[in-house]
From TrEMBL:
This is Blast:Polypeptide N-acetylgalactosaminyltransferase 5. One of its GO terms (cellular component) is Golgi membrane. SUPFAM superfamilies: Nucleotide-diphospho-sugar transferases. The keyword Disulfide bond applies. It is a single-pass type II membrane protein. Its cofactor is Mn(2+). It comes from Drosophila guanche (Fruit fly).
Length: 509
C-alpha cells in the first residue's frame, strides 16, 4: 500500500470515528432529555420549575400553571361521539356517573333545614397589621426573629402572630356572586379541622373566620381533631379557650399519630350537623363562603362541593385570590394537579363564571359533604397512612358512586401554602405516598392501574386482594357504576411511548 492511500484510509477511519462519537453523544443527550422531560414535565410552569410545591402537606398550589388543556369533560347525554374522544394523545378514564338510584334520598326532609341570615361583615380594625388581607411588613430589626420563628411551622409565624384573629378581608367574590340568592332554608354543618403541631394564631384565626363569616343558624359546631401534637399550648390551654367561644367548639385527640384520614374519620364520628365540612388548620373563610356550598348540597345530597382555594402567602400572610378557571386533575403518577378548565365545561355552564364547576378531582383539604352520603360511599380508605392520595381516592369514590364533585366559584377560602412540610412522615415521605397511591390505583382504577405502575418509578404492586375490601367492592357494586346515565370523562396525558396503548384504550371505550 502506498503512503498516500494509507493516509487516506486513516483519515476516512478518523472521520467515521468522529461521526460515531458525535452521534453517540447526541444520542446520550436525547435520551437524557427524554428522561428529564418525562420525569419533570409536570412541574414546569409559567414561572419555571414548580416542583418545590409538591411536598406541600395538605393541598397543592391552586394557581399552579396548567400544562395541558385537557378539553375532555363530557356528559354522556352530550357526547358527540365523533368529536369528544379524538384529538390529543390522552386516554380517557370513566370517572363515574351523575345519578344513581337507591341509597339515601336526594333531598332533605324540611324539618332538618334551618332558616338563616347573612353573617355581618367583619369590619376593618384600623392600624392593625394585615387588615383587609394586606401583606404584613416585618420591621428590619425583627428579621432575625422572623427567620427563627419561620422554622417552627414553615410559614411566617411572626407575621401571623401580629395579625388579629378577627382580621378583616376584602370581598373577593365575583360581582355576580354577591347578587345571588340561595334557598332560605339550608342544612346545618359541622366543621372538622384536623391539626398536628399547628401554630396558635393560624389555628384560631381559622376558627374565628368560621364563626365570624358563617350564618350562625347553619353552624352546628366546630370539631378540632388533634393528631398527637407535641406542643403544650395545644393541650388544656386550647380546650379552655375554645370552651368560651360563641359557637360550640371542642377538641378531640387521637391517641397516637394517626394521619389525616383516620383523624378526619374520628372527627366525622362526632358530627351532629347534616353536612360535614372539612377544613385545614391554617385557613381563612371569606364573606359568604358557606351558603353557596350548602345551597348545592340541599339540591342534591350527593353533590360534594369545594370552595375556590385562595392563597394566603406563607411569607407575608397577604390574601391572594386564586384563578376561578382551573379544575382538579391528575397525572399517571397519581399526583393531583390543577389544569385549565376545558372549554366544554365552560360551555356546559353557559360561560357563567359563577356557576358550579364539575371537577374530576379535588385538592382535598377543604370540602363539604352530606354526612349520610359520606358513610354511604364508605367514607375514607382507612388503610391509607399519614397523608397523600386521599384526595384522589375520595374524588374517584364520589364519581364512581353516584355523586358529583364540584368547585363552587362563589365560595372562597384562603389557605396558607407552604414550600416544605414541617411534619414527620414515619418511614419516609416517598414510601407513604407511594403506598397510598397504589391503594388508589388498585381500588378505583381497575385496568388503568397498569398505567400508574408503568409511569411511577418506585411504585410497587400492592396485594390487590387485601385492598379490594368488601366495603369498597360493595360500595362500587351497589352503586352500579357501569349503568351510567351521566359520565364524566377525563383525559390524562401520556408520554409518547404510551401512544399506542392509549389508542387501544380509547377504541375500547
Ligand atoms: C372577635 O370579635 C368578636 C366580636 O365580633 C369578639 O367578641 C371577640 O372577642 C374577638 N376575638 C378576638 C380574639 O379578638
Ligand atoms: C405503534 O404502532 C405502530 C403501528 O401499529 C407500530 O409500527 C409501532 O411499532 C408501535 N409502537 C410501539 C412503541 O409499540
Amino acid at each position: 500500500m502506498t503512503f498516500s492511500s494509507f493516509t487516506r484510509k486513516m483519515r476516512g477511519r478518523m472521520r467515521s470515528n468522529t461521526c460515531r462519537i458525535v452521534l453517540l453523544t447526541s444520542l446520550v443527550w436525547v435520551i437524557f432529555d427524554f428522561v428529564l422531560i418525562t420525569r419533570y414535565s409536570d412541574c414546569i410552569g409559567k414561572d419555571g420549575w414548580r416542583c418545590k410545591r409538591s411536598g406541600e402537606f395538605d393541598v397543592e398550589l391552586p394557581n399552579a400553571e396548567p400544562l395541558v388543556d385537557d378539553n375532555q369533560l363530557v356528559d354522556d347525554n352530550e357526547i358527540n361521539t365523533e368529536k369528544s374522544l379524538d384529538g390529543d394523545s390522552g386516554s380517557a378514564v370513566i370517572m363515574g356517573q351523575g345519578f344513581a338510584s337507591g341509597g339515601i334520598s336526594m333531598t332533605y326532609p324540611s324539618v332538618s333545614l334551618k332558616k338563616w341570615f347573612l353573617a355581618p361583615t367583619v369590619e376593618e380594625t384600623k392600624g392593625k397589621p394585615g387588615e383587609m388581607g394586606k401583606p404584613v411588613k416585618i420591621p428590619a430589626d425583627m428579621k432575625d426573629l422572623m427567620k427563627e420563628k419561620f422554622k417552627e411551622n414553615q410559614f411566617n409565624l411572626l407575621a401571623s402572630d401580629m395579625i388579629s384573629l378577627n382580621r378583616s378581608l376584602t370581598d373577593v367574590r365575583h360581582e355576580g356572586c354577591r347578587r345571588k340568592h340561595y334557598a332560605s332554608k339550608l342544612p346545618t354543618t359541622s366543621i372538622v379541622i384536623v391539626f398536628h403541631n399547628e401554630a396558635w394564631t393560624t389555628l384560631l384565626r381559622t376558627v374565628w373566620s368560621v364563626i365570624n363569616r358563617s350564618p350562625r343558624a347553619l353552624l352546628k359546631e366546630i370539631i378540632l381533631v388533634d393528631d398527637a401534637s407535641e406542643r403544650d399550648f395545644l393541650g388544656k390551654q386550647l380546650e379552655d379557650y375554645v370552651a368560651k367561644l360563641p359557637v360550640r367548639t371542642f377538641v378531640l385527640r387521637t391517641e397516637k399519630r394517626s394521619g389525616l384520614i383516620r383523624a378526619r374519620l374520628l372527627g366525622a364520628e362526632h358530627v351532629s350537623g347534616e353536612v360535614i365540612t372539612f377544613l385545614d388548620a391554617h385557613c381563612e373563610c371569606t364573606e359568604g363562603w358557606l351558603e353557596p356550598l350548602l345551597a348545592r348540597i340541599v339540591q342534591n345530597r350527593r353533590t360534594v362541593v369545594c370552595p375556590i382555594i385562595d392563597v394566603i402567602s406563607d411569607e407575608t400572610f397577604e390574601y391572594i385570590t386564586a384563578s376561578d378557571s382551573t379544575w382538579g386533575g391528575f397525572n399517571w403518577k397519581l399526583n393531583f394537579r390543577w389544569y385549565r378548565v376545558p372549554s366544554r365545561e365552560m360551555a356546559r355552564r353557559n360561560n357563567d363564571r359563577t356557576a358550579p364547576l364539575r371537577t374530576p378531582t379535588m385538592a382535598g383539604g377543604l370540602f363539604s359533604i352530606d354526612k349520610d352520603y359520606f358513610y354511604e360511599i364508605g367514607s375514607y380508605d382507612e388503610g391509607m397512612d399519614i397523608w397523600g392520595g386521599e384526595n384522589l381516592e375520595m374524588s374517584f369514590r364520589i364519581w364512581q358512586c353516584g355523586g358529583i364533585l364540584e368547585i363552587i366559584p362563589c365560595s372562597h377560602v384562603g389557605h396558607v401554602f407552604r414550600d416544605k412540610s414541617p411534619y414527620t412522615f414515619p418511614g419516609g415521605v416517598a414510601k407513604i405516598v407511594l403506598h397510598n397511591a397504589a391503594r388508589v390505583a388498585e381500588v378505583w382504577l381497575d385496568e388503568w392501574r397498569d398505567f400508574y405502575y408503568a409511569m411511577s418509578t418506585g411504585s410497587k404492586k400492592q396485594q390487590s386482594k387485601k385492598l379490594k375490601t368488601k366495603k369498597n367492592q360493595q360500595t362500587k357494586q351497589s352503586n352500579n357504576i357501569f349503568k351510567t346515565t351521566k359520565t364524566i370523562l377525563y383525559c390524562v396525558h401520556l408520554t409518547p411511548n404510551f401512544k399506542n396503548y392509549s389508542l387501544s384504550i380509547r377504541n375500547w371505550l
